[in-house]
Amino acid sequence: MFKKILIANRGEIAVRVERACREMGIPTVAVYSEVDRHALHVRCADEAVLIGPPPASESYLVIDKIIDAAKKSGADAVHPGYGFLAENPRFADRCEKEKIKLIGPSAHAMRTMGSKTVARKTVQAAGVPVVPGTIEPIATEEEVLRIAKEIGFPVMLKATAGGGGKGMRLVKEEGDLRSSLRMAKSEAKSAFSDDSVYIEKYIEQPRHVEIQILGDRHGNYVHLCERECSIQRRHQKVIEESPSVIVTAGMREAMGKVAIDAARAVKYEGAGTCEFLVDAKRDFYFLEMNTRLQVEHPVTEMVTGIDIVKEQIRIAAGEKLSIRQEDIRQTGHAIECRVYAEDPDRNFMPCPGLITSLRTPGGPGVRDDSGVFEGFEIPIYYDPIISKLVAWGKDRTEAIARMKRALGEYVVTGVKTTIPFHIRVMNNRHFIEGGFDTNFIDKVFFKEEQERKLAHGDVAMITAAIQMFLEERERAIAQKPAGTSGPISMWKYSTRPGMRKIG
């Protein structure tokens, strides 16, 4: 086992890895930028190393600084968490060269699965179903037009090196194809320094279901069942759950098998995730493989009881998987809400700033993976995630009820958060009934929200009219004629010369 592990990350995921290491008796080293000097992940580690100025490009993304910190601290392994260097094959190569064990897959697996087109080609050769489209980047506008006509509109244009919805365009008709291609290539170039894109058939009413896998260097593989991540905002996941309401036992077995086939095709080691699109007929297609720990891994841990981070560490240390496929059971239901410092009423604009008070929820079935504390200032330089709130219940109904209760207990002041948004989603009938797809937030939820606000606007107008009536009546009573006693009626009041009529 490792003597000391450096966590090449920050925030809640660094704290999460540190907790696993502490339970395993492994000392940890935190790295931090100047703005993270007092961050929670620094306080939770056994040692900490300053790696530079606040911008990630000058600290958390600089391979030389991470390697130097590992050497200085005597760490013999590095856990990259997610984001930053987690899927960077150059970092994996460098760790291997420096004889520091990267807790993650090989550089070969990262390169293969990091390119969407190479990944499609690789898994297709292993018999994994992929969405109809190209397995090579498309070169010309004429070529993309020809292929789009062959597979039929609507189609999706996607950046070859893409992720997070960047360089992605939905094209519904031929007239929009050329302009969408230019925009997709431009965005891909800006985000990934690679403007190559490919084309896929657009799956109608798609649902996003993914399979968590674990593999060791001894050729053993298991899948930890599925997570559904269809609640997305602009192609970014915001709520995840396990199990999926649409996945049957037969689907689960079939998807698990192809996920393991895809992992085996690249001799995958560690924790990884195969993502699939599921259409209205429940046919599923390989989308991509994430070669790292997923943000949403806690929902799988809650329903399987398996600590994925500890398994990652054991696998990286050369141990065999401690679990067999027949040992894995999904028990109950878990839902995760990503709580961000964002203003949901202003198009989810980031709201970094000082957390002036914080009360986190607890109680039965509630887990809050957080990287903040009261008095912490959320920096402007990084993803403004506050925590991942997870609720578990014996079934989906209880999980939703617990999540609503936990969100109600959650108090954060000083910054805007997405907690009110999550509460409204938990109360939305489409979500409660499980009748949604990846378009739910952008096309259904926001439309209903707009109607709700308009309805509330009407109520506000009526309330204001009633208030005005009551105020006018009070004034009428106060202005009763001399020599009279008792209140004056509104009928008499309204007929007085010079007085404004009501109604």
Quick rundown:
This protein is of the alpha+beta class and 503 residues long.
What does this structure look like?
It is a single chain. This protein is an alpha+beta fold and 503 residues long. The chain is built from 16 helices and 22 strands. Strand 2, helix 2 and strand 3 (47-52) form a beta-alpha-beta unit. The radius of gyration is 27 Å and the shape is globular. The N and C termini lie far apart (82 Å). Residues 499-503 have low confidence and may be disordered.
Strand fraction: 15-25%
| Mean of residue pLDDT values | 90
Radius of gyration: 27 Å
The termini sit apart by 82 Å
Count the DSSP helices.
16
Question: Biggest sheet, open or closed, and with what strands and sense?
Answer: 8 strands, antiparallel
- Spans with pLDDT under 50 lasting ≥5 residues? 499-503
* Molecular shape: globular
Total number of β-strand segments?
A: 22
Estimated helix fraction: 25-40%
Strand order of the largest sheet: 13-12-9-10-11-14-21-19
Quickly give the structural class.
Answer: alpha+beta
